[in-house]
Amino acid sequence: MLKENTVLRGTPASQGIAFGRISFLKRAPSCPVKKLVDNPEAELERFEKARIHAISQLGTLYEVSLEKLGEQNAVVFQIHQMMLEDPDYVNSIRKLIKEEKVNAEYAVDTVGHRFEQQFKSMVGNDYMQGRAADVVDISRRINEILMMHSGQIKHRTIALDYGDDPVIVATDDLAPSETVQLDPHKVSGILTSGGSNRSHTVIFARTLAMPAVICLGEDKLLKKYEGHYAVIDGRTGFVFIDPDQATVHEYSERKHTDDAQRAHLELFRGKHTFTRGGHPIKLYANAGSLADIELVKAADSEGIGLFRSEYIYLQSQDFPTEEEQYDIYSKVLKEMGERKVIIRTLDIGADKTADYFMLKPENNPAMGMRAIRLCLNNPKLFKTQLRALLRASVHGNLGIMLPMISSVDEVKKSRAILDEVKQELTAGGQSYSDNIELGIMVETPAAALISDELAPLVDFFSIGTNDLTQFTLACDRQNADLNPFVNPLHHAVLRLIEMTVKNAHAAGIWVGVCGEMASEEHFVAKLVQLGVDELSVVPSSILRLRAKISTLG
Ligand code: PEP
Ligand code: MG
Question: In what order do the strands lie in the sheet with 6-9?
Fold first, then answer.
């Protein structure tokens, strides 16, 4: 007998509170036995049939998900179809069947796990780590089809039914296709011992508004909890198994308020952002990788106001090439379609460093050789990024933003390098958009104080309140002990913001805020009152802020 109120804590993955009985997902045996076969040709044929069948199933799944989850989410099943055509994956399976004369199930399982491990080992690359679940999913699909064809099993995955009680599905990691197939009338929440916050599963759970807690650990999410009543809180990551009356009562009340709030926010999906008086505000999202784009779109963002390109450099073992960068920027722009995408040029240095840059140790790296300073000192590095950005610009609606500007000279020099790159591209017959906005981050007090001189040189300003606050108040943003001294509403910071907005508008350019302050509901009223035109925020706060702004005068 379990004691009452066992509390586990995992990673909160999809908000909301769920009640229900824990039901472990039952799958067809995931570890097929290795069998030697006399006729590998016949096994190759079985594999081929199952592969074609899987591709067709995924087509159906795509159609179903299109209705349930929208294009941006359904697309994963097209990606799965492409993975099933991937020569690396398919040929590795064929090779194993042919050379080792093994059964198709074993070959699919072995190759699937090999690819899974490869993706998982790409530490620091969240996007590729998130793909591990996809390769497991497609391999499992083929194997289930193989087993269904040979009559070994009748169904795909199932969760136990507990009569009228809702079910909380528990498993090691839920595959994207398993998540979409969960019946939201029956399944109230998801618990996984593993998983990744960037996986499609989590994105789907969020889109389906299904609370989820992941990464609980295999030693915590135990099979003995099967059938036990539980409460999960997808905002904090707490899971209560066999909760006492007081916990049930507290969470029932919270769920009530939570559900009402979320239903209210959904009314703002697909809308533009306006104040109560009808003044428009552009509500964009901050992003740092290709993987974020799905979150940005699922969050209903109107664009990307800050794409921190340095993350590409941080995830790389060496300077990313022009082609590597072009590939990422083009994909981001294509994904976002007509929506604005503002990519910030390399802001490396201070807390963001990679060994291969071989930056000299400094006493004050936050005020050191970083961001635009480093780029202007290394024109080759800067030009590689600008070439990639310009070439990618034909695929969407690009804006380029320069970080850590503190003088007119830096803007003029950067513009001159940009013009040089444009000329080189033209000479080489390569095209780029003639409609790219160039803006700067206003994140040093110097930039704010000379914003009247800077505004005529650019198309927009984006105020980086994280650094602006740190430098204005002389409070290191990395030092948690200083938190009590950091007040983003300090008059010194607000006056600099006000000055920047006035000077931007006097020069006829737009001005946004992309520091964390813009994501906080209680600061947004002040920023809107100061006249900012755009806010770039964490994706999860988009709907909440759109609702908040609609109440502002
Ligand atoms: C800022 O400084 O406010 C900002 C958005 O840039 P980062 O946080 O990347 O320094
Ligand atoms: Mg900054």
Answer: 6-9, 238-241, 229-233, 17-24, 167-171, 187-192, 212-214, 11-14
Q: Give whole-number Cα distances, 183 to 162, 167, 246, 494, in Å.
A: 14, 10, 29, 49
- At 320, is the secondary structure helix, strand, or coil? coil
Instruction: For 241-256, write each residue's pLDDT tens digit.
Output: 999 999 999 999 999 9
* DSSP code for 350: T
> Which atom from ligand 1 is nearest to the alpha carbon of 465?
3
* Positions marked active-site: 200, 514
- Looking only at the bridges linking them, the beta strands covering 187-192 and 280-287 are unpaired
> How many A from CA of 401 to the centre of ligand 1?
12
- Strand bridging mode 280-287 / 273-274: antiparallel
Are 400 and 436 in contact by the 8 Å Cβ rule? The answer is: yes
Mutate to test the pocket of ligand 1, among 466, 472, 511 (most ligand atoms within 8 A of CB): 466
The CA radius of gyration of the chain, in Å to the nearest whole number, is 26
Query: What residues flank ligand 1, with Cβ below 6 Å?
Result: 306, 308, 347, 443, 464-467, 514-515
Q: Which atom of ligand 1 is nearest to the CA of 470?
A: 2
Measured in Å, residue 464 CA sits from the centre of ligand 2 at 5
Angle between helices 71-83 and 40-69 (to 10 degrees): 170
Q: What percentage of the chain reaches a pLDDT higher than 70?
A: 95
pLDDT digit string, tens, across residues 333-373: 999 999 999 999 999 988 788 889 988 889 999 999 999 99
Residues 402 and 441: beta-carbon distance below 8 Å: yes
User: Are the CB atoms for 349 and 359 separated by under 8 Å?
Assistant: yes
143-160 burial, b for 16+ CB within 10 Å, e for fewer?
bbbbbbeeeebeebbebe
pTM over 0.85: no
Residue environment code for 1-16, b if the CB has 16+ CB neighbours within 10 A, otherwise e: eeeeebebebbbbbbb
Question: Of the residues 314, 467, 472, 496, which should be mutated to test ligand 1's pocket, given the most ligand atoms within 8 Å of the CB?
Answer: 467
